[in-house]
Amino acid sequence: MLTEPLSALTARTLQACGATTSLDVAGGMEVVSPLTGETVASVTPQSAADAEAAVSRAAVAFRHWRMVPGPRRGELVRLFAEELRASKEDLGRMVSIEAGKSPSEGAGEVQEMIDICDFAVGLSRQLYGLTIATERPGHRMMETWHPLGVVGIITAFNFPCAPWCWNAALALVCGDPVVWKPSEKTPLTALACQAVFERAVERFGDDAPEGLSQVLVGGPALGEVLTDSPSVALISATGSTRMGRIVGPRVAERFGRCILELGGNNAGIVCPSADLDMALRAIAFGAMGTAGQRCTTMRRLFVHENIYDQIVPALQKAYASVSVGNPLETQALVGPLIDGAAFEAMQDALGEARALGGRVHGGARESVGPESAFYVKPALVEMPEQAGPVLRETFAPILYVMTYSDFDDVLEAHNAVGGGLSSSIFTTDLREMELFLSARGSDCGIANVNIGTSGAEIGGAFGGEKETGGGRESGSDAWRAYMRRATNTINYSRELPLAQGVVFDI
Ligand code: UN1
């Protein structure tokens, strides 16, 4: 049991992170913890004019920061990673309070921030371009990567800090200031991150201009300022497909760049040769972890008909016995849904599934918290076919299970949804594995073998296709989206040959 009110713990945690924000602003924006449904703080929202001023400050900061050498920019991110390490427990607790995650998952999210910072520090010395063969004698051709400009970052409640950091760490080493609009459900984690970042800036010294990283606390109008401002070169937005449909065209209208990381409808396929015990554990974490509120959550499962009677009863048992509760007060593996609207959406989806002949196990509200908190038993739904709610993302712990008999058919069914983020196959058959990973296999940005759909590492590019938006963040060469590429051709001869053999003698 907690020995102090949640609001006191919130204030103490924020203070431990170094944030000085006033937490009880009369008439301010209320911050509700899904752990209990109580208001834990009230913060001053910013106005659209504040957001415009932040963008202007960032644009001025860019003029300085782009000229600071990459490895020196990396030094700031290295210091930030040190500060994150020192604040890991406090930041993780802030994530638990605001998003309802277990301490282990809260700390895991902060670890993702540390990991991407470490990655970005190395990257700060590797912002390479190519040298390219030219067709003209006495010429040299190369490409150079330059800082792009201000990066606007929009993030969702379910991962209140890691996606910001995937973007911010790369943007900063690439020479770009960042302006962050977090979800209005999780402003405190953002303010805490900003405070930790400012400690790194203080240690870094004068090379860091004012306004290198800023947070905008408030409603959608602030995101709109970022989306519409010609001074924001890149918008990286994480959230629902509905949000992406608004943001994408608005940014495209002004020829801005976008990285969209939107909804998923991630599936697993369990083949006859699978290691069933391993599959069971991977599915349990993928589908029930974070109370089904990850964009990578496993939402559909295709089980080969020959093993259906082995794995589905075992899954039912795991679902029936999983512990649900306040993860700051108990050892529960499954915390709360974010709010009542999420609960309603879950119940609606289950109702639709029932009407289509689905057999629902679990899914009911658990009385393990106050009336104002929404704890549910995760739902396992045996579906006769892939239809209705199975075709869309409901941000709650629902796993729809279906059988298959033919491998080609299951590949078709796997890809027959809007989302294209993450996917898994459980098999020890080499041919099935390779087909799943091939051009006619999973159409997702992430395709895994013998692990679940969630819990990606930062080293790979993160994102997906189709309604997931096509953006890639985090590792691999995702950094290129934060820079502009210039192709340079240099003539060191005394002649002026034209390309393609064109003659133009004057
Ligand atoms: C999200 O839910 O928006 O792969 C991000 C994962 C985490 C990131 C999830 N590393 O599950």
UniProtKB/TrEMBL annotation:
Oligomeric state and interaction partners are given as:
Homotetramer.
UniProtKB keywords: Membrane, NAD, Oxidoreductase, Transmembrane
- Please give the family membership noted in the entry: Belongs to the aldehyde dehydrogenase family.
Where are the active-site residues found? 261
Q: Which GO terms describe its molecular function?
A: aldehyde dehydrogenase (NAD+) activity
Which superkingdom?
Bacteria
Q: What name has this protein been given in UniProt? A: aldehyde dehydrogenase (NAD(+))
Q: What is its EC number?
A: 1.2.1.3
